[in-house]
Specification:
This is Transcription factor Pcc1. Helix content is 40%, strand content 22%. It is built from three helices and three strands, in the order βαββαα.
Length: 111
């Protein structure tokens, strides 16, 4: 995906995090969206996207599930981008740890 460079936010990064199911990706999205970005120097957009595996030609009858969490960050400087992405990664790590301990889908997949 090609996007135009915003002169106000020249530094950008897109992170895609695959989840085993669309429900887990949606849960992570909802947990992350609660906290607003603290700095006006950073802009972020969260979205769900289909997994590349669900679009596989070997599974033409598979219904496409949005099981990838996409985070698009833009910032005024590389430093602000790094700080925002570091915070995102820490929050994501906590969410995934909680899912690993408490979520039935994750527990079932690990068995």
């Amino acid at each position: 995906m090609t996007t135009a460079i915003d002169p106000d936010f020249p530094c950008a990064l897109t992170i895609e995090v695959p989840f085993p199911t669309s429900r887990l990706a949606s849960t992570a999205l909802q947990a992350l969206q609660v906290d607003k970005e603290l700095s006006p120097l950073v802009s972020r957009i969260f979205a769900l996207a289909p997994s590349q595996h669900s679009q596989d030609a070997l599974a033409p009858n598979t219904e496409t599930e949005a099981s990838v969490l996409r985070a698009e960050y833009r910032a005024t400087t590389n430093r602000m981008l790094r700080v925002a992405v570091n915070s995102f990664m820490e929050s994501l790590n906590l969410i995934i740890e909680v899912m690993g301990e408490l979520d039935e889908d994750v527990l079932a997949a690990g068995s």
